Amino acid sequence: MKNILIIGSTGQIGTELALTLRKIYPTVIAGYIPAAPPKGELLESGPSEIVDITNPDQIAEVVRRHKVDTIFNLAALLSAVAEAKPQLAWKIGLGGLFNVLEVAREEGCAVFTPSSIGSFGPETPHDKTPQDTIQRPKTMYGVTKVSGELLSDYYHKRFGVDTRSVRFPGLISNVAPPGGGTTDYAVDIYYAAVREGHFHCPLKPGTYMDMMYMPDALRACIELMEADPTKLIHRNSFNVTAMSFDPEEIANSIRAVIPSFTMEYELDPLRQGIADSWPNSLDDSCARAEWGWQPKYDLPSMTADMIETIRRRG
Ligand code: AKB
Q1: CB 304: neighbour CB atoms within 10 A?
Q2: Average pLDDT over residues 41-59
Q3: Residue with CA closest to ligand 1 atom 8
Q4: CA-CA distance, 186 to 239, in Å (whole number)?
Q5: What is residue 12's predicted lDDT score, i.e. its pLDDT?
Q6: Closest ligand 1 atom to Cα of 178
Q7: Does 170-211+242-313 match 3-168+213-239 at the fold level?
């Protein structure tokens, strides 16, 4: 990787990925849409360009002008928002991916497009979900993710495009807030615990989902894109995880640091339905074997770091 374009750089993972990549690689272009322009450090630390994923000519022009060799395609609507706007979710998630893959085919770029635990559905084995298994999601988010995995594999096999991807679990960050995801409660709970000492949880006890702290997620993107291609049996997409917990377990981990923290349940049926259709825990042994995936943070170390950082920033 030398000249990198991030599409969707102002979203939750995009900003942190751009800032991390800029410490390692010579050129990292922050692609954005006018409705969500880059600000602060993202704006000041490197080049940015308007790149609307629904506009193939705009993607191609930026790729050619900057001699881009790698595209991180992070444009997507998260699961709960995608249920409210399914047509737009398809246009960005699948139509956008098609545009990116076509540019990559013509210009010889590698492409990273994250998939998600949302690519699984109710018929998928829920515990230690295997790498290769049933994927019949019932949400538009999941439909775009599993279709995106297939399309990316197709472009690799048919045209030799270097497509790679991981199925991200819920990502927990103390930098950019998430927006419209089913796993977002696991971010919101830390801010509520530090600021109000109390949290209204939208999911019921016993709702287990895979999660990952953002520093691990950023490493996963970079390590997969740097991996030796001859070792990759899979490409789109690898199961990766760092931990699995339910609302009671994350609340207890917070109580270990803030003993007075309290939580009550106020269920959101949309998010609960989505969470119930997703795995309880993933088997990520293929990622570990094929490119050495290894998370660094578990629930206690993530909780300690989240609370310490939120307190420090005020
Ligand atoms: C969501 O909850 O929609 C995302 C995801 C797991 O892909 N965080």
Answers
A1: 14
A2: 98
A3: 170
A4: 20
A5: 82
A6: 8
A7: no
Ligand 1 binding pocket (C-beta < 6 A) is: 78-79, 116-118, 141, 168-171, 181-183
What is the CA(181)–ligand 1 centre distance, in A?
5
Q: Who contacts 154 (Cβ-Cβ below 8 Å, separation ≥6)?
A: none
- Using the Cα atoms of residue 277, residue 299, residue 268 and residue 86 in order, give the sign of their dihedral: negative
What value does the mean pLDDT of the chain take? Answer: 97
- Structural fold of domain 170-211+242-313: UDP-galactose 4-epimerase; domain 1 (3.90.25)
What pLDDT score does 177 carry?
Answer: 77
Q: What is the third-level CATH fold of 3-168+213-239?
A: Rossmann fold (3.40.50)
Over residues 136-191, the pLDDT tens digits come to: 999 999 999 999 999 999 999 999 999 999 999 999 998 877 778 999 999 999 99
- Which one from 141, 155, 185, 190 is the annotated catalytic residue? 141
Query: Across residues 74-88, what is the average pLDDT?
Result: 94
- What percentage of the chain carries pLDDT values higher than 70? 100
In the residue annotation, 191 being an active-site residue is answered as no
The residue ranges of every structural domain in the chain are 3-168+213-239, 170-211+242-313
pLDDT at 255: 98
CA–CA distance, 132 with 295 (Å, rounded to integer) = 21
Q: Is 260 helix (H, G, I), strand (E, B) or coil?
A: coil
